[in-house]
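Forgive a beginner's question, but would it be possible to get any protein sequence you like and the tokens describing how it folds?
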Amino acid sequence: MITVNALVAASHVLIPIQASYFALEGTDDLLETIDKIKSRPNTELQVLGVLVTMFDRRTILAREVLEEIQGVFGP
């Protein structure tokens, strides 16, 4: 409920995503929540972008997750 209240009060949101598979899966739920908030209580809410955290370019998994993130959100 705190997340919803914060999104209703906010004008912009920056989404931090850890460079791991499970974090990427959880982002879908957050994007659904943001879409629900944008549809009714806060139509002015804008997603500024994403901030990829804990990225280790040495691992294949982290590079694949980064590609997926860029596929969804753009470069």
In short: The longest strand covers residues 46-53. The first helix runs from residue 2 to 9. DSSP finds three helices and two strands in the chain.
